[in-house]
Amino acid sequence: MKRLACLLILAATCPALAGEDPSPLQPSDLARIVDLAEPALSADGKLVAYTATTTDTDADRSQSDLWRVRFDGKQRIRLTQTADSNEWRPQWSADSSQLAFLSDRPRDADQAKEDSTTQVWVMPRDGGEAQRLTDFADGVEDFVWSPNGRQLAVIAIDPEFPPGSEKPKNPPPIVSERYQFKEDGSGYLGARRKHLYLFDIGTRKSAVLTPGAHDEQLPAWSPDGKTIAYVTKRGADPDRHLNYDIYLIEPRIGATERQLTTFVGADLDPYWESYPAWSPDSTRIAYLQGGEDKWVYYAPWQLAVIDVATGKSRIPAAIDRCVTKPRWSHDGRAILALVEQSLVTHVSRIDLADGRVSELTRGDRFDIDFDIGKDGRSVILGGDERSPPALEALENRRLRSLADHNSWLAGRPRAETVTLRFNSADGTPIEGLLVKPLGFEPGKRYPAVLRLHGGPVYQFSREFMADWQIYAANGFAVVAVNPRGSSGRGFDFARAIYADWGNKDVQDALAAVEHVVKLGIADPQRLGVGGWSYGGILTNAVIASDTRFKAAVSGAGASNSYAMYGHDQYIREYMLELGTPWANRDAYDRVSFPFLHADRIRTPTLFQCAEKDFNVPCLGAEQMYQALRALDVPTRLVIYPGEHHGLSVPSYLRDRMQRNLDWYSRFLKP
User: Fold this and answer.
1) Among 148, 473, 599, 659, which one has the highest count of C-beta atoms within 10 angstroms of its own C-beta?
2) What is the pTM of this model?
3) Banded model confidence at residue 670, pLDDT cuts 50, 70, 90
4) Domains, the chain, ordered by start
């Protein structure tokens, strides 16, 4: 027995004996990563519901289910387990007795999966049989409980066909008169709009509250139950501007809506997935205020608070950083929110009396979401460069684990990540991250891959990036740079590339690899570069500006803005930042430099795109591929069928990772 006890202890402490896999991460491991999202703390503070998305490798699809854990960390259980459907957006009723959520499951056993739509379902707090509440013709996009639990505020799109009519055998012609006539994920846009509905749970009847040629999003019900807030764009043609505003309406049929915010610019752009946050006493709303339309997405989103009665708003802490997902403290004296700084994002507290900002989480981490209960209890979803986001309780400014669905990573070797700080060619301080190859030996030079992020107003942070770890496991150093145009460094740093893509940010990207070469880590003869979305756009600009790179991977990129005007979804943004091609030839020539001067490119480049991407359509990759093919530069084009801007099919994600590895290995490790 004593010998057996010793063996059990060894098995628990030694990865090899415990059955843990000590091998480095590879593309096949992408399917093992579980993505957690949407933490929802019950009103009584005892339970936390959240979404966990896993990979079904047999079906080659991702699947989202609801989980629940007690705030004390006990009784973590899976609430839903539908083989071919998804559940998400969990919301507790005000009395914590029921959990409502969205699901695309069939309404019953007789309904075919292809005919099912997303509806609101509800189940008891401890799990059990779920009951469908809504039956909107083309499904529900979003919803929120009323405080008394008797109604829902629902966002739903106008039905494509009149209720009771028979669908045609073939899709009808697509007809649009809209200024913005397409959107990635939604397809072509016509006269159908998303509206706010009032749904009665007892009678199962609904009524539209906001009819008209406009869309409503982000519903939020006041704690006193008297008002619903939501976000919309109005005016003669809402497609032509970014001036989102918060509106209010009473929860009754025939009520008249009221515009609350009046700032000439975006108030709570839905892109940030941050709802209007009502104060506990229903007198104020915390929200996000952007910049004027001219600055599109370059201006940081500031926390603002508005008085509901007077419409007077103020910014309690003008910190020149992006703030998202505001929540009120239980006493109404402060706002908790995600605050982005360079390389990190923390949950922070903003005191309304003096505007003081204090971090509640610290260190090299990346928080992506959180929730706060009426008694001040908080749960946070965050991680770092070694671990995907996990769910934690925040108590006395200390974090306690609640749910980690990626504990399998504990036994896997992961590469070290260090911060880079250096100056660009013109002296501008730039920051980034260096992921050292596994088994790194000081004094030895390695093939290095320069990774460029999308956005462009985004940044690489101290977050878990599976692709970086896979590159490092295969002998590559990864240089992740945050050039000018990135977020986390304030307005001036972001707008430095305004209407001037591929200039200063190219200088900063080149300075990054030069810095790592000077450190003695990167081999100057084995440099690669790549990125997705704006990362692909910038990759094209880098290889058109400098021939030192021996391999490039340009994903979902574009370099001929003349051709993309009117072809992608950004017609409004083109007009605001570049103007029209016929009136602003210099601007379009400037940002189209990589295509117009493709003859300067010598770097073997792999181009990738998603077939149904309306964000950065395949036209951009196809044109650059054709240009390099005409010039006899080694190149390849990969198109992922049926996919939108963000790939979602597991086998395609693995394929992309493996192709990137193979391409870089072919040219950087001959």
Assistant:
1) 473
2) 0.94
3) confident
4) 412-668 (3.40.50.1820)
